[in-house]
Q: What sequence folds into this?
């Protein structure tokens, strides 16, 4: 049956379920070609908890994605598997939060959260120095110092750019003043740099809005858009990292300034290109797709609230800070 679209046939509130997918009939085009042969699939998953949402998104991509070549392929690499993906996590702090199908371990997860919160903003390169091989940006740097970049002038490292906007402070201030605003948005894309950048930012925008409950508490709802999201090699770290950023930076500061309880509401995650690189497909198959029928979700996840996981996560911070300091000494 040709696909005109992919329809989510899960329960209306989509909480605590495994998403089911079914093809919907559609006619061939005037040229006799099937609609799905020219359309990138748009897939939707919705789950109560973060780990379940990550797994459902990977399974949907594996079943319904299309093959693409990428500019990062090496000779002999098979094509990637790709789609446009929309993920809704109804309760971002619900357990299980951590999926084992992620790159690295609990210490790597802690390091990424620290990075998203700004711990590596100084790792960016001087853009006018061809010999400088450091990063061209960090997500937090683009959010907290938008419009600027680093340059080398007279042997000194300086911040360049025509303007600088701390978008993190701006969205917090805007939400404090008007919780229901639709304007609490941060962006990363700087076309004067990114159109010529080899690896421009995948994260594009972060949008917030607050809902008030019957007790006067606030619920921070968030939409995040990625232009490109490596489903196997990065997406879970991204998801977890921004859940923690929302809790530790945005919600915590809103609560401090207003004296209100601020909880995390639903997270909606849009990835224009949600993909598994061809080189990673065999690993994804062995570590996840072939194991789905042999166990439960609990076998493939960790609870972040587990005391052992909490201990590992907390103790990793000192090692990460030393790693950053060592990098700083050598660069």
A:
């Amino acid at each position: 049956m040709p696909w005109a679209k992919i329809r989510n046939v899960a329960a209306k509130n989509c909480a605590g379920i495994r998403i089911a997918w079914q093809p919907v009939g559609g006619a061939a085009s005037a040229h006799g070609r099937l609609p799905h042969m020219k359309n990138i699939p748009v897939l939707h998953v919705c789950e109560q908890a973060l780990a379940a949402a990550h797994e459902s998104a990977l399974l949907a991509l594996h079943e319904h994605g299309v093959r693409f070549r990428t500019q990062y392929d090496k000779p002999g690499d098979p094509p990637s598997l790709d789609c446009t993906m929309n993920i809704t996590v109804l309760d971002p702090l619900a357990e299980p939060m951590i999926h084992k199908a992620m790159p690295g371990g609990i210490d790597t997860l802690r390091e990424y959260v620290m990075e998203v919160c700004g711990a590596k903003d100084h790792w960016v390169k001087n853009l006018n120095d061809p010999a400088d091989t450091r990063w061209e940006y960090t997500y937090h740097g683009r959010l907290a110092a938008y419009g600027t970049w680093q340059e080398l002038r007279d042997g000194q490292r300086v911040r360049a750019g025509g303007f600088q906007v701390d978008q993190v402070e701006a969205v917090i201030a805007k939400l404090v003043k008007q919780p229901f605003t639709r304007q609490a948005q941060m962006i990363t894309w700087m076309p004067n740099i990114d159109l010529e950048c080899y690896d421009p930012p995948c994260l594009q925008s972060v949008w917030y809005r607050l809902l008030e409950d019957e007790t006067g508490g606030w619920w921070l709802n968030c939409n995040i858009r990625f232009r490109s999201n490596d489903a196997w090699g990065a997406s879970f770290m991204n998801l977890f990292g921004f859940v923690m950023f929302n809790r530790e930076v945005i919600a915590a500061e809103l609560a401090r300034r207003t004296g209100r309880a601020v909880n995390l509401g639903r997270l909606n995650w849009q990835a224009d290109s949600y993909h598994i690189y061809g080189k990673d497909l065999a690993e994804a198959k062995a570590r996840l797709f072939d194991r789905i029928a042999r166990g439960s979700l609990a076998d493939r996840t960790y609870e972040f609230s587990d005391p052992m996981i909490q201990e590992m996560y907390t103790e990793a911070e000192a090692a990460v800070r030393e790693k950053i300091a060592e990098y700083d000494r050598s660069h």
The chain has eight helices and 13 strands. Confidence is low (pLDDT under 50) at residues 1-12, 15-29. The chain has one domain: 38-330.
